[in-house]
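To whoever is on call:

I kicked off a structure prediction for a single chain this morning and the downstream step that reads the tokens threw a length-mismatch warning. I double-checked the sequence; it's 485 residues and nothing unusual in it as far as I can see. Pasting both halves so you can look.
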Amino acid sequence: MYLPHRVLEITSSAGLPILKLTQTTGITGQYSALSHCWGGHGGLRTYKFSLQGHMNAIDPSSLSKTVFDAVAITRGLGLRYLWVDTLCIVQDDPEDWNTESLTMDVVYRNAIVTIAASSARDGREGCFLQSPISPEAIRVPLTLTTSLQTTSVMFRTHLGSIAEGFDNSALSERGWCLQESILSRRILHFRKDRVVWQCKESLTAEDYLHLRWNAPNNFDRSRMLSGLPVTPSLNDWLSIVEDYSRRKLTVHTDKLCAMRGLSNFFKSALGTIYLDGIWLNGIHSCLPWISATGEMQNPPSRRAPSWSWAALDGPIYHFQTLRSLKVFHHPILQILQFANFKLSSAAEQIGSSGTADEDFVVRAPIHRIYRSDYTIPASEFNIVASGTFQDLMYDRREMKCHKLLDSQGQSCGWASLDQESFVLEDMHCLLVSTVTTRRKFSAHDVVILGVVSEENNISFRRMGAGEITRENFFDGIPANLVALV
């Protein structure tokens, strides 16, 4: 059976664990993987200078409490090997980091079980956290009046729904942990209130409480079951990106790196080129994303082009996941060049991925647009938006949207800006696709752009996205070459 390139090998002597890093060339076996928050106390790590020493032996007392507990759990499960990122990846070797991060999908999909330190904020807290509520059962004597037989009923403190703990756990806030939870086949969650078992078939806990499927309609059952469908869809990807955009990263440049395992997994299903978080064959669904708050933050340094959700920090939505009605897309935007090679040669690079170092060149109609200086309330949004977005702002009141205006000051749609500071800049709208419902025009999906330079070729940067709800708005506007940075 598959083993990762390096694993923590666990043997014992006189009941005590003996640990060392092992390179697995020519070795097969079963292993567990750890999903945890490092925090500022990740414990012992492997560096270039310590790699050889760790291959000889690792002192168990030098491990963080979380890793130490994971070793005990792995031994208890009868497994010999444990994969831990802090130890199995050389932390100060960029080449090793790059190589290992590309195999995250294989590591977690092939682990017999993933041990999730779900409630631990850092390495000091460990897996075995004490619950503030005693789970001890209370036995109450009971006499049946009909037969006078004496029996008893057992009661124990209700710890709440199993599902409630997922959204509030420490792991649910961390970017790297998302792909770990999605790619894992089986997960043992060690939480403050209980231990929870999660797999593709069930979700259950040590107190014998199973997840009740008659939960409210807004409860997403699929999110509670471990793993993805055998053939995941573009919608699956968009939903994952939205979840990921709400999570935190200690190192901001990990924004795309922490999704590599998932992007590798999706390649076989989507079968196309992946660039900066966007899938080429899903470009018309991937580009129209909007800020959930209008308050996205710039990272300390550039890590992705402006048209990618990875360029900024903050929660996002995609039009495709927000729409309340089923729509049909009529793609307009065409891709001509990206990532240092032209589309004509890209067919030979199916499955490739990377980061664009040069302009992303597309052909589509582009039109000057104006906007209201104020953000519009939910009641006004319903007037200017298409029927596919009706009542959207009543459901997501944190959103900030502006009315779009033509050159005569007449309303023609709406837009959400990535940052509200953009309201002071000149804007253009780039037509991505036309949307119809029941064969009738609904709206033009557009990306809002600002001019970056006016030299030989004009370049644009993304500022937001929205809808043009006037059907003839782009009439007479030819498709132009547009370079996006």
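Update from on-call: the warning came from a stale cache, not from the record. Cleared it. Sanity check on the structure: Residues 212-224, 341-352 have pLDDT under 50 and may be disordered.
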